[in-house]
Amino acid sequence: MRFPKYPTFSLGTLAALACAIAFGVASPAPAQGMFDPVVRVNDRAITAYEVDQRANLLKVLRAPGDPKTVAVERLIEERLQLDAAAAAGITPSEEDINAGLEEFASRANLSAEEFTKAIAPAGVSPETLRDFIRAGVAWRQLVQQKFGPRARATEAEVDRALAQSTRGGLRVLLTELILPANTAQATANSERLASEISQYTTAGAFSSAVQSYSVSPSRAVGGKLDWLPLENLPPQIRGLVLTLAPGQVTAPIPVPNAIALFQLRAIEETGAPAADVAAIDYAAYYIAGGQTPTALADAARVRAKVDRCDDLYGIAKGQPESVLDRGTLPVAEIPQDIAMELAKLDAGEVSTALTRSNGQTLVFLMMCGRTTTLADEVSRQDILLQLSNERLGSYANGYLAELRADAVIVRP
After folding, report:
1. Residue 138 counted as domain residue
2. φ, ψ for residue 230 (rounded to 5)?
3. Most CB atoms closer than 10 Å: which of 103, 198, 238, 275?
4. Do 357 and 311 belong together in one domain?
5. In this structure, are 145 and 20 located in the same domain?
6. Are strands 253-255 and 324-329 parallel, antiparallel or unpaired?
């Protein structure tokens, strides 16, 4: 895993960037009041101008979700990341930032200068881009310094993963436990509880915790999931599962508004060649009301009308563009809670287990299809790096959740 986790550019994004270079459009000037604070993070202000700038960048990158909502959350996280890095004595140099810019721009096959020029017509200033990169570089350096030695996989874990990767396809039986983390208090409580539950080693103890604490719909069946192909799981979860013996539990995994834990019940070969999921095509249709009976009834009516993802365009017709997200992304770039739900689905199947907007919006999630490739033969060093990076990512996400839970975030 790389820090920051930069998005992959789609053909549509590259086309938009090319048009921006070819047809220069003047950037809009900030309106009066744009420098007023809209959020305070530990007494540091985030201004309306910063939110608009980041929203413009997210639009250029075709990032999923409402641009302004996502912009605010990203900027809050970056304030926390920069403060934590500064407290550890980490300040990225100009050389570090320039290298980060080049790395980011290279994903669109552009130089840093070309990329900066391309996004200018969308109203994104060079300073905004540099601030974005600065936060990512600082966070990467901090995470490596703080967790690097702890994240390194053991030789026994590499042996197990290497043996499994050469035997062909695998499938796993998991039990999931989802703890709430939609407020600072809930996050703090769930983190303490998750740390304790992650040490459980028996099915009975974990199932009891599911019945007592889980907020997932799977609680009704004790959190038990059906057999899942290992390649369907998000990379971070897959890497953690590969290090488990039956009965063991993953480290806590922060996901949007929640903390997830998974207990391995069984693992077995499928007899099919090992495969990798290169990308997932999925759709998310947003319904007001969260998990209320009314919203769930609306979701049931939508489900009765759709057989495939393309049918959702008709459902969303005449509504704001933000009510439907549809796209194809590498699994590593899909939000982890969505990626985990998609892992449970076949093409055409639907989940209504997730919400957004602090539980006020129901996510009608539909699997459109997977692109798979035969897994490449991997070396011992490849597996060591993969397992270590996935564990590093888990530590980083947990640390960020901890910083957020301890922060004073004021939204006027």
Report:
1. yes
2. -55, -35
3. 238
4. yes
5. yes
6. unpaired
pTM over 0.85: no
The neighbouring-strand residues paired with 324 are 285
Compute CA 290 distance to the chain's CA centroid, rounded to the nearest angstrom.
Answer: 20
- Distance, CA of 60 to CA of 277 (rounded, Å): 26
- Classify 170 in phi/psi space as left (phi over 0), alpha (psi -120 to 50) or beta: beta
For residue 370, give both structure tokens.
Answer: 């997977």
239 with 365, same domain? Answer: no
How many structural domains comprise the chain? 3
Rg of the chain over Cα atoms, rounded to whole angstroms, equals 22
**Residue 374 pLDDT:** 54
> Tokens standing for 196?
């304790």
DSSP codes of every residue in 3-35 = SS-PPPPPHHHHHHHHHHHHS--PPPPPPTTTT
pLDDT tens readout for residues 64-86? 678 888 899 899 999 999 999 99
CA distance 205 to 195: 14
Distances (CA, A) of 279 to 126, 234, 306, 343: 31, 11, 23, 12
- Residue for token pair 């006027």: 412
